[in-house]
Write the structure tokens for this entry.
Amino acid sequence: MSVSHHVLHLVPRRHPRQRPLQTAMVIDPAPTVDSDGKDYFGNSVYYLTIQEPHDRLMVEARSRVEVLPLAGPSDLAASDPWERVRDTLAGVADEALLQAYQFAFDSPYALSNDDVYDYALRSFQPGRPILEAAMDLTTRIYREFEYRGGVSDVSTPVRDVFAMRKGVCQDFAHLQIACFRSLGLAARYVSGYLLTHPPEGKEKLVGSDASHAWVSLWCANDGWVDFDPTNNVIPDVEHIIVGWGRDYGDVSPINGFIVGGGAHQIAVAVDVNPAS
């Protein structure tokens, strides 16, 4: 490879429940040109260009993050009816609503269709509280779709994931987002990391964690509420947010292009550990 240019989303995002304490990035070979900043959605982003021949690129990002627990269990049944949230959103009365409303439309990786709409309606019955309905949809995806790697990639359409009834976390996130948006609700794709636990009696393997994806739904008076259909939970202290956008394409960990060279391979390892 003679030239490569990349955009990185690897630094955890500042959030009311999350505060990056230390961040560092090691890149080999060292970039010829680099800069950092914020993208359109306010995520931390790092740009790099390498202008010398190289046969490998190593990127290591390290962060120390303080994550605060949820204030307490939400009363899902006390949330607003989902139709009221939808109608409030469509009113677009102020800038805050407009910021949420931009996440109510189809995006390249989260396209809804009639099958997805019908599937979502099974959870979103008339008058049902939005948080209760969203958690029900989360549970249904968790139970009715098989987690299996190797059957999809980042370009696999939602319709194919729905037909196969299998995929990985980004597939389930895109599916749930498409379900929400098919109903006129605003949902964003959240990219981050997840603390995993080894089987009982086994040691945790280095690199055994992985990049993770889940969904955030705008719920009017309850604000943005996260749901993880891969694990059937409302994310808490074991979920670390790197960034959010309309779908994977807005917050992929590393994106870019390479000039020169032939085929290439990618290897990824993630470690998430509680601070001692």
